[in-house]
Structure formats: structure tokens, C-alpha cells
Amino acid sequence: MRAPARGVHGTQAAPDPPWLDDSAGRVVRPYTACGGRTRSTVALDLLSLVTATGVRPRVPLGAEHTLALRLCAGTAAVTVAELAGQLRLPAVVVKVLLSDLMEYGAVMVQAPRFPGGGSFAADDQSLLRAVLDGLRRRL
Asked: Residues with Cβ < 8 Å from 94, sequence gap 6 or more?
């Protein structure tokens, strides 16, 4: 693994943008976007709502961090799952990126809200049946 590039005064230089190939897509493995880390420092749900705070981090951001922040700033709130889809990165990688941005104060995250004020339980068959029915209608 390469040491981070240093700027003129010994500060860390901004990282290069992700390597892309027109036909193949991303050339560098997704885990390099989060420095090889596989766990976020904050527990995030796929349905957690993420919003930009307007605070600009004082550290140089990587290309994926910058793009995630830009996507969060472009809407009122976006879910972790939507960000993963838009960034074309695995959700675990996006969670690590978002935990970094939370640490910098650039984004804030709210737990998902469900109808009726309750929480979703994996055994909530009425909700699962409604989702399955909706998918069947679309297909």
C-alpha cells in the first residue's frame, strides 16, 4: 500500500479521482474508497436518512467522500441505500464514507421513520406482503 501523498507543507494532498474505464467501469476495488475499512464507526441502517449540514470539512476529502456529500446536499434527505445505488458502491463502503462525513460534521443522519411511529420488525408479515404485492404488480 502506498503512503499518502504529502503536499508542500507536509499536509496530506487531495487524493486522485477514482479510476474509471468507459466499458468496464470502476477499475479500483471499492474498499479502497474507505481505506480498506469494513466497518463504520456509527451504526447506520440502509433506510437511515442522510442530510448535509453545510459544514465544510477541514480535511481534504477523497473523490467518493466528495461525491457522497454532493449527493446529500442536492436533496432534502437521502437514504443510505439510495446513496449506495447512486455511488455504485456496496452499502458497507457507503456506511464507512458516511461515518467519516459525520465525524467531520458534514452530514447528519436520522434513524428511519416508519408509518405509525413503530419500528420495522423482520417478522412484520403485513408490510412484507405489501412489498411483495407491489413488486408483483410492477413485474
From this structure: 68, 80, 83, 84, 87
